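Question thread 4412

I'm putting together a teaching handout and wanted feedback from people who do this every day. The idea is simple: show students a protein as raw sequence, then show them the structure tokens that encode its fold, then repeat with a second protein so they can compare. Below is the first pair exactly as I plan to print it.
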Amino acid sequence: MACLLAGTSALHAANIDVTDDRGVTVSLPQSPQRIVSVLPSLTETVCELGQCHRLVGVDRYSNHPASVRSLKQVGGGIDPNIEAIVALKPDVVLMATSSRGVQRLESLGVKVLAMEPRSSADAQRVMGKLGQLLEVPDAQRIWRAIDAGVSAAAQSLPPGARSLRVYYEVSAGGYAAGTGSFIGEMMARLGVQNIIDPAQGPFPRINPEYVVRANPDLIMIGSRNVQGLELRPGWRNIRALRDKRVCVFTADESDVLVRPGPRMAEAARLMARCITEKGVR
């Protein structure tokens, strides 16, 4: 009987319990070997932890590293293909808390870990949680290397960068990076001033007139959104456009910049290069 109880105790201790961003604790009998990820930043974090081989499916936007492009695509966060996900027989599905598929998958008996990093602290926490899930003991060491890369990018900038007032447009429709977003936090670490009022939240939709009134020195924007920038009412006279101080990031660069995960040091270097080349005079 004692041996039986000891065996039962050992089995129980082998369970992996991870609490996600909903406060829901997901319990697995062992570290998952078949994973579906429906958020690019989570896909990249799994791979940064050296566990890309466990991924069996990803969302349509997951494109880094290159190896994930050959995996089965299962829709996106807004429109996940539930049938395709279930057919892959995953041990766990990694999704954003805002994804519409979380409850449906759970109702079908699929384990879901819902996490949605919005800040640098979130990205660090998510890496720690996934390290726990995947039994990667040095997850925080990996994070420290990323954070050191961001610091190095900040230290590379000249003192003149600190006077720059910057507008970062994240996506079409005038959605900006606010001070509370991971992009806004990175801007602060690089020493520039964000024109967005903190009260407007992490990713507010900004009226074009707001940007005209703020008159930023530098604009950062992706190539997908830059078309017609000077045709926006009043924008032709914005200091950044008048002085040709606009950084247009390629689609691949924008992917790096808008994903709070393991490529944040690379994102910091991209922003630092923009500030050096276009901002500092």
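The second pair follows. I'd like the answer to focus on this one:
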Amino acid sequence: MSSSVLDRTGIAAGPVRTDQPDDAPAAPARWRRVARRLTPARKATGLLTVLVLWQVGAGAGWLGTTTPSPTDVITAARELIASGELAHHLGVSLTRVAKGLAIGLSAGLLLGLAAGLLRLAEDLVDGPLQSLRMLPHLALVPIFIIWFGIGETSKIVLIAIGPIFPLYLNVLHGIRGVDERLVESARSCGVGRLGLILRVILPGALPQILVGLRQALGLGWLSLVVAEQTATTAGVGFLMNDAREFLRTDVIFVVLVIYALLGLATDLFVRLIERRALAWRRGFAGE
């Protein structure tokens, strides 16, 4: 359709196109929707680029003669899967990290909640935790072996120690970062202490808590790597040590890729929780 508009003299200035409906989406909005659908593909481009560079570098000899290519690593992984060896050692490692993370995440969350909500609890636990946070994992291995022996207990305790500190810090600072005006407004509306914690403080601290959870899970996998390097008879760490003795660099890279994929999987899981739990938040998502 077209219509005419009048200029200042009252003479028709010419037809004006009105073909486009009023509710037609703007071009930028359409491009944003297309970009949102392509997000998984865009996020995979980085990993694909690394794999291509790795394959080219290994084939050309740029990475050294002993560095396997991705195709060699895939072949070694198939052999381990066919023999059942990979499933056995992976199951042992997953059991260890599950037990350690269950203890460490629970302790970090409870300590962070206590210190964030109660000043007395912060005075009691913050100093010792800040001191222990600076100790490297490798320095704790001989102590845990002396205390708990060389069995599973020392490894689980070592895995549990790592995630406590990042989760504790993020829970504490997430709670303390809640706007005091929101707390006072809720109190003025008659909200009790429990309702204040559940409806105001924890939702306000949730973004920071989830960041701490991502960091804690990553540190849990790093702790597993350290734990399985000493006096281990099963687990993917043992598989790596055994491959090192026989100069099987392809198997060593299989284990490294497994560690990386497990860490990536847990991080994606937390990000999915974050997307669902924080759907109300409208933050800057980049250009």
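Top answer:
Good format. For the second protein you could add a caption like this: The chain has a mean pLDDT of 81. Residues 79 and 223 are 27 Å apart (CA to CA).
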